[in-house]
């Protein structure tokens, strides 16, 4: 049966995860507290709204709805300014090789990201047109670890969930893949992503033979 692949964006295709962290950290600092890299792991894969709720919770802050909306806008503007000028050279090492392999072998792939900035980011990386489907933060109502984003991607690819492979760098995303009944490949630290079916530090550690194995029967 036909297999398909679903890629998370931030921290998998491009190293925007550090810019999300810096922008959230600035927001916290402006409110008078700090967030750690360890806390940031819990924000990876999590929607903008839920991230801000979590951060305010850590800082013990409660704010009005207006202030909340304002902070979301400020954070996104800060984030966008940090990633402006991104181009093809910002694709994480090894990613291009895997996309090329999938394209050449007619294995369809989709994006499955919580980000509302995903489409413009894929365009600036010059890989937007290569995706068979794109599912991002504008298309889902339930955030990871809910499997919705990956299930919609599987529908759009017209490939059964159990035949989909997910690449994820976040704890929430690996859990979402599991709940969607998909094979999960963790990209990052082994101690963080231990629930994943396979874990690699980054795409340069993945042999094409491995990709071949997981996308064929
Ligand atoms: C991804 C990232 C999160 C980010 C979320 C929303 O899941 O891992 O760090 O907060 O997307 O992104 P957005 O670009 O819509 O603020
Ligand atoms: Mg991610």
UniProtKB/TrEMBL annotation:
A GO molecular-function annotation: magnesium ion binding
SUPFAM superfamilies: HAD-like
GO terms classed as biological process: carbohydrate metabolic process
Binding site for Mg(2+): 8, 10, 168-169
Protein's name according to its UniProt entry: Beta-phosphoglucomutase
Binding site residues for substrate: 8-10, 24, 43-48, 51, 75, 113-117, 144
Keyword Magnesium: yes
Cofactors demanded by this protein: Mg(2+)
Keyword Lyase: no
Cofactor info, note text: Binds 2 magnesium ions per subunit.
């Amino acid at each position: 049966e036909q297999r398909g692949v679903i890629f998370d964006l931030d921290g998998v295709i491009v190293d925007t995860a550090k810019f999300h962290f810096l922008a959230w950290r600035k927001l916290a600092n402006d409110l008078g507290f700090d967030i750690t890299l360890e806390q940031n792991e819990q924000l990876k894969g999590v929607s903008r709204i839920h991230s801000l709720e979590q951060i305010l919770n850590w800082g013990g802050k409660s704010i009005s709805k207006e202030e909340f909306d304002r902070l979301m806008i400020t954070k996104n503007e800060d984030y966008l300014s940090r990633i402006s000028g991104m181009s093809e050279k910002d694709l994480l090492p090894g990613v291009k090789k895997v996309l090329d392999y999938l394209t050449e072998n007619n294995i369809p792939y989709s994006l499955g990201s919580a980000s509302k900035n995903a489409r413009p980011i894929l365009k600036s990386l010059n890989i937007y047109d290569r995706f068979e489907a794109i599912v991002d933060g504008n298309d889902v109502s339930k955030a990871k670890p809910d499997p919705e984003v990956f299930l919609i991607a599987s529908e759009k690819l017209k490939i059964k969930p159990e035949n989909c492979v997910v690449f994820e760098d976040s704890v929430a995303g690996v859990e979402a893949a599991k709940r969607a009944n998909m094979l999960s490949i963790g990209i990052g630290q082994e101690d963080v992503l231990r629930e994943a079916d396979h874990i690699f530090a980054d795409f340069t550690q993945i042999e094409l033979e491995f990709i071949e194995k997981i996308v064929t029967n």
